[in-house]
Amino acid sequence: MQLDFHQVDAFTQRPFGGNPAVVYRLDAWLDDQLMQRIAAEHNQSETAFLVREGSAWHIRWFTPKAEVPLCGHATLASAHVLLEIFQEPGDRLEFTSKSGPLRVSREEEGRLALDFPAQVPQEAGVTLELENALGVAPVDALGASFLMAVLDSEQAVRACSPDFKALAKLPWAGVIVTAPGMKHDFVSRFFAPVIGIEEDPVTGAAHCMLIPYWANRLGKRVLRAEQCSARSGELWCRLDGDRVSIVGHSVLVASGRLWV
């Protein structure tokens, strides 16, 4: 069996920036174990699989180790593939997922906008285990899908050098570190060693938590963000009630064929 795939760098305008995702547009679902093995073979933070179901696309996301319930950058990459490679008509795509309905729309300057559910983080408390795992003392810690550690400065976020084995022992699928930005409203980084990703370059799903938090803290609904990993990525963000809009660029970097 031969399967075509495309690799897109999301939340960037330049190849080898942002967050890479592999996308498979399928006629029918593959066996779950086969999709997991394919994701492990690509060894990117996420591999997305798409099957058309009625007027929408059912989307599933796999890290090298596990299926996840929500992924922003691989959804952005999937929309890029459908719109630019397969020439899907219109300016909006509907997706169904384990996290409910998702939408992606074209915006100005070639950007794509994710319409995702907002997740309002709740106080979780700073623990000694978290401080030791991050190697820095957060000023606050909040939780929803992930644990979010608020640091005192952008410099602290950039300098954070966590103990990944210790992070993997925390009862969270991933840990966000964030702080006010110098050129952006806020900056962040994201670590998820428990699901096979030591540091994810640019994480759309984390911004489902970050946007409500910073919108409330800064008193503004529209924000600009940077995820300041080594690859880096820029996001235009908006809080719309119980939804968030996460906007970014994307660029195709590879296409190929897998034999299985």
**Poorly predicted spans:** none
Range of helix content: 10-25%
Structural class: alpha+beta
How many DSSP-defined strands?
18
Keywords:
260 residues, alpha+beta, 6 helices, 18 strands, 41% strand
Question: Could you provide a short overview of the structure?
Answer:
The chain has helices spanning 32-42, 72-85, 128-134, 154-159, 164-168, 207-218; strands spanning 2-10, 19-26, 46-53, 56-62, 67-68, 92-96, 102-106, 112-117, 122-123, 140-143, 147-150, 175-180, 186-192, 197-200, 222-227, 233-240, 243-248, 250-259.
Describe this structure in words.
This protein is of the alpha+beta class. The chain is globular. The longest helix has 14 residues, at 72-85. A hairpin with a 4-residue loop joins strand 13 and strand 14 (197-200). 21% of the residues lie in helices and 41% in strands. It has an 18-stranded mixed beta sheet that branches. It contains six helices and 18 strands.
